[in-house]
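Need tokens for this chain, all 220 residues.
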Amino acid sequence: MAPPRRWVVVLDPGHGGKNSGLSWKRSGDVSEKTLLLQLAQTVKTNLRRQAAVNVFLTRRRDEPLSILERITLANRKGADVFVSLHLAGAPSSRFTPPRIFVNRSIRDPVINKIVKQHKSAGIVAVPWDLAQNDQIKYSLRLGQDLRTAWNRVEREGSAPAADLISGVPVAVLSGLASPGILLEVSPPDGNLNPENMEADYIKPQAQWIARGILRFIRSR
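Here are the structure tokens for all 220 residues:
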């Protein structure tokens, strides 16, 4: 009997290197790039505890990565799921629901005609910019599953996640050969002490993100 299929999840912590993203100071210096890396690592741990998945991070340390490098890694790993992580605005005392972006479908009649001709001849040749087209419906489903996971989080004063934002060009998703979303998570409370960041921010965020990804995987 063949071993059970292992799903491949690629998590993309945004920023890195000189591109720190947002930053703020309170009893120390905290940057978006650092938070996102910690969040991705914790999501990875949660996923591997709950399912037979292989989880890869586009970056495992503070290093600069181009959009091309991020997409190429996901495609080379044979990703079934790609989630690019960012913060939804600057830290404040207000709790912000996440925003979920899905790439638009590219409609170029000339290129699409060429692709169809190749397919009819038995040649699979998909231009980079069209790679996500066949995945849009699955990317939307992934986004919906993440939104459902968020809306099930019981937190006083929390608001429902916003509707999926689709039909816009998202560079880090354009060349993906797998379902993918850009997820802007709620930033931590601006008054949160960095010493409590892991327990009060990283772990709760990672839990619902992992649940959303697992919900999507189990529905495939």
